[in-house]
Amino acid sequence: MTRLSARHRPRLWIVLVVLGLLALAVWINSPVVGRLFDRSGERVAALPAAAPFRAGQRVLMLSPHPDDETLCCAGLLQQAQAAGAQVSIAWMTAGDGFEFDAALTERTLKPGPQNMRALGNTRVGEARRAAAVLGVPAQRTYMLGYPDGGLFRLFTTNFTQPYTAPRTRADAVYVTGALTPGAPFTGEALEADITRVLDRVQPDLVLAPAPQDFHTDHHTLSYIALQLMSRRGQADRLHFWVVHGGLEWPVPKGLHAELPLTVPPLATRLPWTRVDLTDEQREHKLEAVRAYRTQTQIEPRFMEAFVRANELLSPQPLPESGSGVAASGE
Ligand SMILES: [Zn+2]
Fold this sequence. Notes:
Layout: H1 3-29, H2 33-37, H3 40-46, E1 58-63, H4 68-82, E2 86-93, H5 99-105, H6 113-133, E3 141-146, H7 151-155, H8 187-201, E4 205-209, H9 216-231, E5 238-241, E6 273-276, H10 279-291, H11 293-296, H12 300-304, E7 310-313
Parallel strand pairs: 1-2, 1-4, 2-3, 4-5
Antiparallel strand pairs: 6-7
Helix pairs in contact: 4-10, 5-6, 6-10
């Protein structure tokens, strides 16, 4: 090796890293690359259609945060209502744990507990507006208001002992219009609130996050929903969706309403069914996504990437073979 080539070696690494990052950016953002390298679009086309909705059917969406109900399911919630079904939405949290979001909306570099609580109340308003866009009236929406990012604590260490959320410094439900104002941040209270909603709605179909969803609040809600519905002898009424599906899913980012929503990498072996959206349903979905101003100002390309030709729903929480374990992503 000459001294010259040794001096150039570090630069070669830089070039390789830059090229790698460029390739990654193209993969994430280009609608063409994905179609060239995988057959996921064909796989989606071959999936069976989801069971149609019926008049009089009662559908309950369990949403961990304001926006999940829209990202996963805005199209099928519209279809349910068009078929004469009654749709209700329950949000577990107000999405008050996103510090960077509060910094932007509250115009402060270091958002304090009051700023975080203000963000929570803003997101409650956005959630109700998005629901209205999807045709779900306010009296069929339930804001539970438990801590964003805290559901796993409630499910485990804080089932009976109130949890203090680090961002809001709240240890009880504080958001305006909550189902049970002042309820302590405990798993017990959360379960009691979900049970209240189940008793009131008497759902035939419950839409919950799949155990494979990467976000901790999401898979924790999946476990809670499975437990509560099993105790009622109604676990078969649960159907599952994914929002945080792993590996930058859904790619490409941005608005590509004509492309299929592919199967999420973390849950490839779930028995997915497909719900095809009409142009009008996609337009309403985009409108509902954009009702979440606090979110779209930060990650518009992630949010809009869910507006696709189809949505996906699994009637089972685990792959049929039983070999896949949720936590390890199958
Ligand atoms: Zn979420």
